């Protein structure tokens, strides 16, 4: 875990790796400011995570927290195993866009505002 709500269980979990972690942390701070308990999980390696004990994996991604968002600029492939049936993946499903990075992030929704909007939607507060 990279960021968590002090003294309380999360309502929503934000999962990211690489440069997307910054987006997740910014969204986490916005959610906390709005009274929504969130957790940021940096997951740079699925393989290493899968080799941890079930108890550890459940402590990072508690099964009772269904509101989960994975943020991955490369692809949505595989993230469903971590967000579950009720979660969402913000990721690329196309190939070949070319523009400055900030424009692409805005166009494809890799921004804290989109993450917070999806979190609220998953929690029924949208």
Largest sheet: 4 strands, parallel
Compute the number of helices. Answer: 6
- The average pLDDT value, as a whole number, equals 89
Q: What is the helix/strand order?
A: EHEHHEHEHH
Q: Classify the secondary structure makeup into a structural class.
A: alpha/beta
Distance between the termini: 26 Å
Measured as a percent range, the helix fraction is 25-40%
Strand content: 15-25%
User: What's the overall geometry?
Assistant: globular
Unreliable stretches covering 5 or more consecutive residues: none
Query: How much is the radius of gyration in Å?
Result: 14 Å
Oligomeric state of this protein: single chain
Identify the strand order in the major beta sheet. Answer: 2-1-3-4
- Give the total of beta strands: 4
């Amino acid at each position: 875990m990279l960021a968590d709500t002090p003294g309380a269980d999360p309502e929503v979990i934000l999962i990211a790796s690489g440069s997307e972690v910054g987006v997740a942390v910014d969204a986490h701070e916005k959610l906390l400011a709005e009274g929504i308990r969130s957790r940021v999980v940096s997951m740079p390696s699925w393989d290493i995570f899968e080799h941890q004990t079930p108890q550890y994996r459940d402590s990072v991604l508690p099964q009772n927290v269904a509101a989960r968002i994975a943020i991955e600029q490369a692809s949505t492939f595989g993230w469903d195993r971590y967000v579950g049936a009720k979660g969402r993946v913000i990721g690329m499903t196309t190939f070949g866009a070319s523009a400055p990075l900030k424009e692409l992030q805005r166009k494809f929704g890799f921004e804290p505002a989109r993450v917070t909007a999806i979190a609220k939607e998953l929690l029924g507060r949208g």
